[in-house]
């Protein structure tokens, strides 16, 4: 609280306290989506997830890969949020669950298309004097 008695929201890794021991989804810079129980974090927002799965979405299909205990470096996190278990179940009803191995080639093809499109846009921007600053893993 500040001097006026107003609650000041956390804007640091301390705001993750409410998510500990809850099921969360984490989207990483490389586009991976991890779902697990947040067990711990530190001042750099490094995360420790338990019972983690990596979920792959392609069109109207999804597949899960068991990852177990997973440590995520904070700088790679794009988004973190608590999962509403009821809404997760409802969402899954509209999609087909398939083995993740079947989705790898489709997912890779989509990533390759996205990279190609991004390279073309970058070339066009460079020709008119814009500089595009991104790394190979910043394609979220």
UniProtKB/TrEMBL annotation:
Residues 11-86 form the Sm domain. The keyword Ribonucleoprotein applies. It is found in: Cytoplasm; Cytoplasm, P-body. Its main location: cytoplasm. GO terms for molecular function: mRNA binding. Pfam families: LSM (PF01423). GO terms for cellular component: Lsm1-7-Pat1 complex; P-body; ribonucleoprotein complex. Keywords: Cytoplasm, mRNA processing, mRNA splicing, Phosphoprotein, Ribonucleoprotein, RNA-binding. GO terms for biological process: deadenylation-dependent decapping of nuclear-transcribed mRNA; mRNA processing; RNA splicing. PROSITE patterns: SM. The keyword Phosphoprotein applies. CDD domains: LSm1. InterPro entries: Lsm1 (IPR034104), LSM_dom_sf (IPR010920), PTHR15588 (IPR044642), Sm (IPR047575), Sm_dom_euk/arc (IPR001163). PANTHER family: LSM1, U6 SNRNA-ASSOCIATED SM-LIKE PROTEIN LSM1. Belongs to the snRNP Sm proteins family. Plays a role in the degradation of histone mRNAs, the only eukaryotic mRNAs that are not polyadenylated. Probably also part of an LSm subunits-containing complex involved in the general process of mRNA degradation. Component of the cytoplasmic LSM1-LSM7 complex which is involved in mRNA degradation. Component of the heptameric LSM1-LSM7 complex that forms a seven-membered ring structure with a donut shape. This is U6 snRNA-associated Sm-like protein LSm1. The gene is lsm1.
């Amino acid at each position: 609280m500040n001097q006026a008695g107003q609650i000041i929201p956390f804007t640091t890794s301390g705001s993750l306290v409410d998510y500990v021991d809850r099921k969360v989804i984490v989207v990483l810079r490389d586009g991976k989506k991890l779902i697990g129980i947040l067990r711990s974090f530190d001042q750099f927002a490094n995360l420790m997830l338990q019972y983690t799965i990596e979920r792959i979405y392609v069109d109207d299909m999804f597949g899960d890969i068991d990852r177990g205990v997973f440590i995520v470096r904070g700088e790679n996190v794009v988004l973190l949020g608590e999962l509403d278990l009821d809404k997760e179940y409802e969402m899954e009803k509209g999609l087909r669950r398939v083995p993740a191995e079947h989705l790898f080639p489709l997912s890779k093809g989509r990533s390759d298309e996205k990279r190609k499109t991004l390279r073309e846009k970058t070339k066009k921007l460079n020709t008119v004097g814009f500089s595009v600053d991104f790394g190979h893993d910043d394609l979220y």
